Amino acid sequence: MADLNMEFNDAETQRTTIDNRIRALNNGRLSAAKAALVNFPYLSGHPQKGLMTTNARKTQTYDHIAFFISPSEKNLPRVPENQNAGKSVDGYDYGVVDFASLFAEVRFGDSNVENLTSRQATQLYKACKDDVSDHMPIWVRLPIPGA
User: Fold this and answer.
1) pTM
2) Which tens digit of pLDDT belongs to each residue from 96-142?
3) What is the Cα–Cα distance from 136 to 139, expressed in whole angstroms?
4) How many CA atoms lie within 13 A of 71 on its CB side?
């Protein structure tokens, strides 16, 4: 799910609020036997990587992966499993392909975009947007069922 334009002026607070609403929804209205559960892992924050941003400027999380999980589904991760992401080499995990940092390393010799001058950052973001995308790819890894 891309370009949802879920803009966060105060990312920590707003993401937590939205994540809490999804948890409440899962525990309330969606707790019926036939209801599907919902999981937006990028709202929860990654246990090792923290809150992830998906735009090249690293200021917003416009892109999401969502799981709509039927009660009989056993292989898709539910919200509590987001806290275990990345803890197993072959297990559930998710992240962002941070090409902005890769481009900054190649072009300016520093992968930490925050170290760039204003002019360098402007050049980087313009190149990302014009030549590649202003959205960085997101990914999810699911364990092989039954493995």
Assistant:
1) 0.75
2) 999 999 999 999 999 988 899 999 999 999 888 888 888 899 999 99
3) 10
4) 8
